[in-house]
Task: inverse folding
């Protein structure tokens, strides 16, 4: 495993982060989830990402149980706040001071820890003054409940505004967690340059485009049984944008490129996002422990410029690049 600094800080995280969105507390039984966490640790992963909204807090509980016997200082635990949790009442969502302060306490209890290494604003809240949100984060840092603060899916201008307020309040934003893959490149034009200027790194989610870049889906053929595309609990909805024959045909063109590089297609997709110097880590999920060891091999891989050019040629116009696609819901209920 390789490690990278997160933003302009002295904090290092593993190049591959284990994330439990769409799996723990919902798709995967708890004992299998614990086996996946064990496999991640055995593979050298030290960084774990979750959120209170995942499976309505159950994902945090599963991760906390799986990590409870690990030396706390040897792992990095990330969680997030924004989405509706609990009974989903009128104050059970957003980035108000009330919701943030109550949410950090709930997350710490479920994760069985005194602090999280990184606490992230899961989306931008248009209905709460940014000053209120950033003051609450500053207080959480001073209380020692979070060591660092990050954001997720914020635009370049939102990152700039948040960074300025954080600086005035005596702490720094060190990360953004956006979607990023060969097929979803909307952060490249604005978010990445702004982050590089201000000292934030990207921790990217869905580097395999919900599994499409693994190559297991073929144009004109039904999705394999048990795959995300057949999951009625939410996976199928998340992956449907990539399931056209046009996209799947382009993805199949990556197979010989991966073979030439000595990689699986999943490894190639993870290695590709890690070529971006502003990316500190790629988040990888797993529903089976045996999925982990192979994908972790993408850490430390350096792709030749010729390989990167061939990937661009294969994907071409299939990739979404519009920076306007980086956005948070206009309403907390959206």
Result:
């Amino acid at each position: 495993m390789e490690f990278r600094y997160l933003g302009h800080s002295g904090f290092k995280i593993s190049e591959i982060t284990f994330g439990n969105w769409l799996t723990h507390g919902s798709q995967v039984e708890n004992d299998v989830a614990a086996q996946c966490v064990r496999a991640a640790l055995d593979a050298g992963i030290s960084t774990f990402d979750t959120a209170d909204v995942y499976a309505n807090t159950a994902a945090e509980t599963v991760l906390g149980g799986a990590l409870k016997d690990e030396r706390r200082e040897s792992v990095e635990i990330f969680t997030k706040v924004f989405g509706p949790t609990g009974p989903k009442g009128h104050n059970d969502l957003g980035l108000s001071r009330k919701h943030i302060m109550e949410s950090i306490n709930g997350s710490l209890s479920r994760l069985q820890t005194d602090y999280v290494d990184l606490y992230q604003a899961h989306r931008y809240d248009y209905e709460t003054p940014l000053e209120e949100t950033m003051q609450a984060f500053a207080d959480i840092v001073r209380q020692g409940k979070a060591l660092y603060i990050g954001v997720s899916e914020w635009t370049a201008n939102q990152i700039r505004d948040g960074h300025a307020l954080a600086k005035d309040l005596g702490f720094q934003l060190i990360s953004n967690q956006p979607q990023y893959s060969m097929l979803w490149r909307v952060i490249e034009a604005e978010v990445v340059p702004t982050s590089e200027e201000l000292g934030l790194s990207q921790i990217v989610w869905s580097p395999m485009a919900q599994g499409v870049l693994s190559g297991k889906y073929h144009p004109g053929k039904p999705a394999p049984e048990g795959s995300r595309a057949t999951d009625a609990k939410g996976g199928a909805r998340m992956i449907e944008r990539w399931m056209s024959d046009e996209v799947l045909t382009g993805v199949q063109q990556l197979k010989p490129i991966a073979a030439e590089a000595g990689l699986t297609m999943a490894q190639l997709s993870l290695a590709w996002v890690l070529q971006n110097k502003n990316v500190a880590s790629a988040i990888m999920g797993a529903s089976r422990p045996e999925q982990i060891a192979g994908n972790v091999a993408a850490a430390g891989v350096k792709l030749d410029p010729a390989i990167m050019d061939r990937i661009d040629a294969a994907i071409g116009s299939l990739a979404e690049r519009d920076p306007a696609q980086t956005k948070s819901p206009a309403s907390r209920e959206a």
Observations:
- The longest helix spans residues 97-111.
- The beta strands are 3-5, 12-14, 16-19, 47-49, 76-81, 116-121, 146-151, 173-176, 201-204, 279-284.
- The domain at 3-208+275-300 is CATH 3.20.20.100 (TIM Barrel).
- The radius of gyration is 19 Å.
